Amino acid sequence: MDVINSLRKVALAERHIEDACGLVTEANWNQTADDWRLMIDAGDTFGLEDKTGRLVASALNLPYGAEFGWVSMVLVTRMWRCKGLGSWLLKACINRLDAAGLVPVLDATPAGEEVYKPLGFRSHFTLKRWQGVLAAGGNGRPTGVRSLTDTDVDAIVAYDRDVFGGDRSRVLRYLARQAGRNAWLATAGNGYLLSRPGRTARQLGPLYSDDPVTASHLLSAAFAEITGPAFIDVPDHQRCLAEQLRIADFTVQRPYRRMFKDAKEGFGDIARMFALAGPELG
């Protein structure tokens, strides 16, 4: 606690974004300055500054409706690690969500999982981050898929709420803007895929669909139209999509586990979750 008391506790603001991006780079994560702006604006944030005013650690909650909140961006710079900062920030996030009557939910790395279990977190499902390099072309966009337009956003917000299990309309509107031309909708209205630029690779997702065939067609549209490095976070139960990625020479970068605290069961319809928005957004 003496270490924590030597640091200044702050809410994150625009002035912290440069340092926050430094934390991301040091951890080799993929978030951008725009991602930070969204999360600071939409979230309940926590930061720790040293005596020089430099941000040395971060964390935040994203409230997703009346049932749960997303714990995100728990980062500590290298020279301040192993001093209890991450645990303090995590507990601050949990306490704030508990006080608001919201269930804490997160995507944990294997190392993080061992921290979260003693705090009462339970497993919902496992997933993996896949990485690859896309070269637009191939057979072109499949039938039954079209580009997302501004007038489609309300529909995907409603569809996402049903599948995800919470209201993240603000996040989805941001992702739709970030996607630009690289977002697709199933013409039957039974699925969508967004993407966004990242620090090192384009993040594909969320990809939600009523069935595996539609999900595969949406991913094929991305393969046909995106060029460059790409990440995609796929639940392990979506084996057909994983096989499509293997065929496209994607490889597994790291595993995650979706976890929730003090609830009887997890949230959302996981059968229709084919790719996620990323561990920072759910």
What structural class is derived from the secondary structure elements?
alpha+beta
Termini separation:
31 Å
Q: What average pLDDT do the residues reach?
A: 96
Number of helices: 9
Number-wise, the strands total 13
Strand content: 25-35%
What string gives the helices and strands in order?
HEHHEEEHEHEEHHEEEHEHEE
Poorly predicted ranges (pLDDT <50, ≥5 residues)?
A: none
The percent of residues in helical segments reads: 25-40%
Biggest sheet: strands, sense, closure?
Answer: 13 strands, mixed
Indicate the radius of gyration in whole angstroms.
19 Å
Overall geometry comes to globular
Give a short overview.
The chain has helices at about 1-5, 15-25, 35-40, 85-100, 110-115, 155-165, 170-180, 210-225, 240-245, and strands at about 10, 45-50, 55-65, 70-75, 105-110, 120-135, 145, 185, 190-195, 200-210, 230-235, 250-260, 275. The longest helix has 15 residues, at about 85-100.
Describe this structure in words.
- By secondary structure, the protein is α+β, with helices and mostly antiparallel strands.
- 33% of the residues lie in helices and 32% in strands.
- The protein has 9 helices and 13 strands.
- It has helices at 2-5, 17-27, 33-42, 85-99, 110-116, 153-164, 169-179, 212-225, 239-247; strands at 8-10, 44-49, 55-64, 68-76, 103-108, 121-134, 145-147, 184-186, 191-196, 202-209, 228-235, 251-261, 273-275.
- Strands 1, 2, 3, 4, 5, 6, 7, 8, 9, 10, 11, 12 and 13 form a 13-stranded mixed sheet that branches.
- Helix 6 (153-164) packs across helix 7.
- The longest helix has 15 residues, at 85-99.
- The protein is globular.
- The two termini are 31 Å apart.
- The model has no long low-confidence stretch (mean pLDDT 96).
